[in-house]
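Please, structure for the following, as tokens.
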Amino acid sequence: MQAGCSRPRTSGAGLCERHLKAFDGPGRANHDIEQTTRVYLEHDQQVREVSARLAVHPNTVRYRIRRFQELTGLDLKRTEHLVTAWWLPNRRRSTP
């Protein structure tokens, strides 16, 4: 498991294991999907802003967000899932 999600079985670690396990494998695509989702949520779900920020086509942003939801089981239209989706990648980034 990546740094930030490998702590003892706390509720945060459990959320990481449940939702982000799919992103722990090798591959650029996993990183791109997670990064795009983080930027998407930082920019209030504005696809065009995210597209410009990441220098990718808006449809690429939409695809990556859809893949994030498929891989994590989180529906970004549900508030609880949205909060979890925002918290998880930020936790991984900030926890050694």
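The mean pLDDT is 81. The chain has five helices and no strands.
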